[in-house]
Amino acid sequence: MIVDPVGLFLVFLKASALSLGGLSSLPLLRGDLVATHIATDQQLVQAIAIGRVSTGPNGLYIVSLGYLVGGFAGAALATVAAAVPPLVIIPIARVSRHLLLTPPVAGLVRGVALATAGLLAASSLQIQIAAGATAWWQIALAAAAVVLSYRGTIHPAFVIVGGAAAGILLGR
Amino acid sequence: MKVRWNVVPAGPTCGDAKSGGGVAGRGVGGAVGAGVRGRGVALGAEVGFAVGSADAAADALGAGSVDAAGVPVPEGSAGGLAPSTAVGAGARSFDDATAAPPRTTISTAAETRNGSGLRLADPVGFALFAAIAESGTRCAPRHCAASSRPIGPSTVWIHSFSSVSRNQVWIAWMSFGGGGAFAAAPFSWIHICSTGFHVKTGVSCRPTSAITVRLTGTLERLTRSWIAVGTQSVGGGTSTLLLIRRLAVERERWLSPREFGELWALSQLSPGIHLVALAGLVGDRVAGWRGVAATVGGMLVPAAAITVAVTVAYGAIASSEIARAALSGVAPTAAGMTLATALLLIRSTARRARAQAALDLAVSAAAFAAGIAVAIPTVAAIAIGGLIGVVALGRERPTSRETPVG
After folding, report:
1. pLDDT per residue over B87-120, tens digit each?
2. Closest alpha carbon to A170 in A131, A143, A133, A145
3. What is the mean pLDDT of residues A138-163?
4. How far apart are CA A99 and CA B62, in angstroms?
5. Are B282 and B210 in contact (CB under 8 A)?
6. What is the pTM of this model?
7. From CA B36, how far away is CA A37, in angstroms rounded?
8. How far apart are CA B117 and CA B205, in angstroms?
9. CB of B385 within 8 Å of any CB in chain A?
């Protein structure tokens, strides 16, 4: 699919700049890409899974998504878009480290984080439904993934691999 | 009394990391000759200084420099250097292959001498792979391969840091005026120390000891180690954070544990991927904007390439029956993990007190409902959340999240 590179870059940049933490750009990306039929929920799920299995921060799933949507150029644009917004903290921290520790800033970050978390939870359910993963074993798998990831005792890559194995066994 | 050393012409490279240990050994003499312009010995002087390092120098060091590596060797004969003979004494075996030391001008005015040591100007025109150290503080703002600390009227500690590094840092310092066992002035020493050693010297530091430390190859090491971080950590999150911590605090000692915690807390305030912000902050602390480029590029570019490669590989088998079956299991797993990420984000962000926790959870629940209903755009929901946060959620000290979601 041919996508306008500038527009794609701006979508990724916006998602990265308005999120707090790797995966939390998902609701924004889903709103901008899936709703406009540039990407599908299946692609989104693939990208998230690849981001978990691949190396580096799992926020790099947007690189995978960039490739799925726009080829190598899309991946490069997504990488830049992921790299730039976090760096604004460096000049800010240099200029006013103390300002960052004031209650309004703490409240802002907390409010954004909580709202993002709610949106992220909503997105995860919508992805599950939209990707057609609503068989009983798939719901059970999702529940198991929630518990395992929340407890954090098993490495995320193994959880993904376990999911793939369950899919091969049960999903034919 | 005016003291003037002529500057020995510099060779083609400035202590490049690749130039090898033997070069450093022979470069010792050149360092002293690199220029000292004194305005007045008693008042402190502007000291042109030269320090460099050589990579993997331990085995490459020639026998000729063994004495220099062991103990501080006063340059010239006992009693100090006669200014006019300094060039001749300093410039022995100085040829094209010799790594010419970089030159730095240091002010040794009283205020910079006191307390934390001497400040260095950032010299112009250094190679890309260069970062200058500010001497004096234990974990210096710019990464010190070694730093110095006056611990008494006649003692200075040279403390070199990069413990795993095979870099050899060479340090030049000078002392003007009397003190300790050394009576006459000025003195200069060149000391080559393996990194990871604490070197105690008997140098008088009272009138002044101008010490500068320079580690070339810092950016190269920085890039290399962050490529390792980017490619060795799978899945991000806590494992990556631990990897970074082990690198920055324990192995390279770029930061003290407390500083690392501070940077990590700052990174949690940044937009986007927090681990990228952490990498940038560490790089900035170690080597300025070049360090930022090295760490962020080193962490992201190879990792992104691997991610693309995995995506391409998946695309090649995506249409097969088995891949489709696997995806039918991976899709709910990924969705579930995303939900877990959201829950972890709430757990680490929400405050503990009952009323506050209820308020925080209400914000998340409202956002969740808005996300399901799709009545308002995502950006608006986030903005409203931030606004509510500024008004009502800032009543406690900033959270330090224990679970990174990056």
Report:
1. 333 333 333 333 322 233 233 333 333 223 333 3
2. A133
3. 88
4. 53
5. no
6. 0.63
7. 69
8. 10
9. yes
